[in-house]
Every structure is written in structure tokens, then in C-alpha cells.
């Protein structure tokens, strides 16, 4: 082992070079350029603001968000919260935001499920299944989304009327008025049971985390399913029973020229959901396929050498490793699906874009209306990115 002593002069921090107020000093040049660029950006923003204010004053156009408290007079066919044309513009825009979230959340779940299945099918050893999945991916990705939305909407509008509605299952009717489904006669007990289920999910997550921590300490696995069964099924059932155990179901019935009762999925929402789901699923399928192929083939061989079935290897070994490759590009697809939902205006679905456009046409508050649309999509996109980045950090490999 070398005993060579280190020269103490090499341990000293070199003295900092003082800034010279001359253009030859690169640090002075960097500061000057940064100040100039920031000043130019501020100047452009100031000019745009002043120019906009001047043009609005010349045309006597009111500014501000005071119009939000005025009566909207805007009919909205689908709304998750109580709404009438006598409601304010603020409530109308809130309905639009909820309609957008209804498409985005359900679409993300369905597109992820369908895309994962198709991506796995493309790697199947069954030649026919693999080719069908490949044709689906190539066909869906090569046709513009707007054309697909118009295609599905045309198909749904071409269905027979309510009197000749398709009835594939008892209580389910499909017509040009939409899809009618039986639904619970929702009461307070159902709301409390739903809250109990959400609380049970959170408690199950905490319990599973505590059990894994104990397993890491003593090496003894502990079953989680008994506690999960009690928290996810038993607790909601107890709350539901204490609330009177209501079981009434609202069945759709044909009365006159349309159905009454049950739950209605409008043709506009149905077409938008199908189009967004099938289109995004084609891209997710390729992401899933690439993620699985990124896992070394030796993982498959080692697992099969232990006698594990292919389905078990895929579910327990390959997919958990592939997630580290899948999650980052999957985030982009979730954002694309959310932003592509703005095409709903083409088929008449009243999302935030449609309602905001009608609002700005009625009030003349174009800048405020566009700002509201931008703020809504920015908030939703940042929320999705934050959640996916958090999840990606949870599954990332930790280097020692």
C-alpha cells in the first residue's frame, strides 16, 4: 500500500477570481446577457398587456371575472351536480370541469386496461391473436382522432329509436338516445357506505405497509387478505346495514317516446369515451410491449426454470420490472387523453371547452374565457404529472 503523503498545497481551495468590470470577463458577459433577456421578456409582456387593455378600452369591452356571478341561461344536458339555466356562469363552468374530469378519469382507466391487454397480446405466441393486436395498433394510430370520434358518433346516431332499442341484457337498452342502464336508487346510506369503502382502502394500504415493514424485520410473511376483506367489504356492509340497507334499483322503462328511470349514458359521452379509449389504447399497447421487451429474457428463463407458469412470470416478475420503463411515457399518454378530450366540442359533448366557448360568446369575455380553459387544463395536467412522478419515484430502483 502506498504511503505517499499528499502535498498540503493541493488540499487548499483555489482562490476565487474577482469579477472585473470588463467585457472580456465571461461572467460579466453572462450577467449582462441574462439581464437583457429578462428585460426583453418583461418588456414584451408589458407591451402585450398594455396593448390589450388599450384595445379593450377603445372597443368598450368590459374586463374582469364579475360575469361569473351572472345568470347563465345556458342549457346543459349532462351535469354531475344540480344545475338549471338559472344558475350562474360559475356553476356552469364547474359543470364543464366535472364533465371533462368524467371523461378523463374513466378514459384513463379504460385505455390503460385495454392498452395493457393489447400490448401483451402482441407478444403472444398465438399467431392469430398477435396479428389481430398488431392490426389494431397500426389501424388506430394511423387514423386521426377527430375522424374516429365522428365515426363512433355517427354509428351511435344510426341506431334505432327508443321503441326499437337494442336490448342485449335485461334492463339494458341501446338506442340513438344513448345507453340506458339500471341504477341504484341512491340514498344517504349508499353515500356513507362509499365513504366507508374509501376509508377501508386507505386503512388497508396502511396495514399492508406495516405488515411489509414487520416482514423485513423478522422475515415472516403475514397474510393481508383477512384484514383487507374486513375493511373493504365488511366495513361498508356494516355502514350500509346501519343506514337501513336500501336495495331499491331504478330500472329504465319505455314511456312514450323515450325511456324513464335508470342511468343514461348520452351518445355524445359514449362516442367520446369510446374514441379516446380506443385511440389512446393503441399507443399504450406499444408502450407496454416495449416495457416488457426491455426486461432481460433471462428473467423469463430463470422463472420458468423454477417451474412457474407464464402468466405468473408475467404478473409477478416481468411486469413489476417493466413498470420502470412503462410509467414515464405512460404519463404523456394520460396527458394526451385529457387534452384530446377538448375535441368533444366536435360531437356536441358539453365539456369545459364547449361551455366556456358559449360563455364567452354570450358575455364577450373572450380573454377571461380562454384563460379559464387554459387554467383548467393546466391544473389537470400538472395533477396527473405530479401523481405519476410520485408513483415513478416509488417504483424506481434505489442505488446503494
What do these coordinates show?
- It is a single chain.
- With 400 residues, this protein is mainly alpha-helical.
- The protein has 3 domains: 26-61; 89-158 and 275-395, MetI-like (MetI-like fold, Orthogonal Bundle), CATH 1.10.3720.10; 186-247.
- It contains 11 helices and 7 strands.
- Strands 1-2-7 form a 3-stranded antiparallel β-sheet.
- A hairpin with a 2-residue loop joins strand 1 (173-175) and strand 2.
- Helix 2 packs antiparallel against helix 3 (127-142) and helix 4 (145-157) crosses helix 7 (267-294).
- It is globular.
- The protein starts with 25 loop residues before the first helix and ends in a 5-residue tail after the last helix.
Brief synopsis:
This protein has 400 residues and is mainly alpha-helical.
Mean pLDDT: 86
Tell me the fraction of residues in β-strands, as a range.
5-15%
Output the CATH topology of the largest domain: MetI-like fold
Number of strands: 7
Percent helix among the residues?
Answer: 55-70%
Category from helices, strands and their pairing = mainly alpha
**CATH architecture title of the largest domain:** Orthogonal Bundle
Amino acid at each position: 500500500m502506498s504511503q505517499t503523503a499528499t502535498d498540503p498545497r493541493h488540499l487548499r481551495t483555489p482562490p476565487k477570481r474577482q469579477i472585473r468590470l470588463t467585457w472580456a470577463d465571461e461572467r460579466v458577459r453572462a450577467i449582462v446577457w441574462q439581464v437583457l433577456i429578462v428585460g426583453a421578456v418583461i418588456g414584451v409582456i408589458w407591451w402585450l398587456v398594455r396593448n390589450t387593455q388599450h384595445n379593450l378600452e377603445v372597443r368598450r369591452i368590459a374586463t374582469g371575472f364579475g360575469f361569473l356571478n351572472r345568470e347563465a341561461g345556458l342549457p346543459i344536458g349532462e351535469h354531475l351536480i344540480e344545475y338549471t339555466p338559472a344558475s350562474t356562469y360559475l356553476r356552469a363552468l364547474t359543470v364543464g370541469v366535472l364533465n371533462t374530469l368524467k371523461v378523463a378519469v374513466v378514459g384513463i382507466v379504460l385505455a390503460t386496461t385495454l392498452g395493457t391487454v393489447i400490448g401483451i397480446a402482441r407478444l403472444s405466441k398465438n399467431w392469430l391473436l398477435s396479428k389481430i393486436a398488431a392490426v389494431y395498433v397500426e389501424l388506430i394510430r394511423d387514423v386521426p382522432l377527430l375522424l374516429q370520434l365522428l365515426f363512433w358518433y355517427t354509428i351511435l346516431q344510426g341506431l334505432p329509436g327508443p321503441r326499437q332499442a337494442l336490448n342485449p341484457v335485461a334492463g339494458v337498452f341501446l338506442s340513438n338516445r344513448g345507453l340506458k342502464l339500471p341504477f341504484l336508487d341512491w340514498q344517504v346510506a349508499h353515500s356513507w357506505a362509499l365513504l366507508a369503502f374509501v376509508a377501508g382502502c386507505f386503512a388497508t394500504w396502511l396495514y399492508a405497509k406495516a405488515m411489509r415493514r414487520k416482514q423485513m424485520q423478522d422475515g415472516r410473511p403475514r397474510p393481508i387478505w383477512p384484514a383487507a376483506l374486513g375493511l373493504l367489504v365488511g366495513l361498508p356492509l356494516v355502514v350500509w346495514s346501519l343506514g337501513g340497507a336500501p336495495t331499491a334499483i331504478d330500472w329504465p322503462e319505455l314511456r312514450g317516446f323515450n325511456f324513464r328511470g335508470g342511468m343514461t349514458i348520452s351518445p355524445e359521452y359514449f362516442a367520446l369515451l369510446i374514441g379516446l379509449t380506443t385511440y389512446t389504447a393503441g399507443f399504450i399497447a406499444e408502450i407496454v410491449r416495449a416495457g416488457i421487451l426491455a426486461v432481460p429474457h433471462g428473467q423469463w428463463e430463470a422463472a420458468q426454470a423454477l417451474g412457474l407458469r407464464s402468466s405468473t412470470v408475467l404478473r409477478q416478475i416481468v411486469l413489476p420490472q417493466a413498470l420502470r420503463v412503462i410509467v414515464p411515457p405512460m404519463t404523456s399518454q394520460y396527458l394526451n387523453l385529457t387534452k384530446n378530450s377538448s375535441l368533444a366540442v366536435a360531437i356536441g359533448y358539453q365539456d369545459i371547452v364547449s361551455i366556456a366557448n358559449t360563455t364567452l360568446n354570450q358575455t364577450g369575455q373572450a380573454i377571461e374565457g380562454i384563460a379559464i380553459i387554459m387554467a383548467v387544463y393546466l391544473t389537470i395536467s400538472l395533477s396527473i404529472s405530479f401523481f405519476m412522478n410520485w408513483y415513478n419515484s416509488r417504483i424506481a430502483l434505489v442505488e446503494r
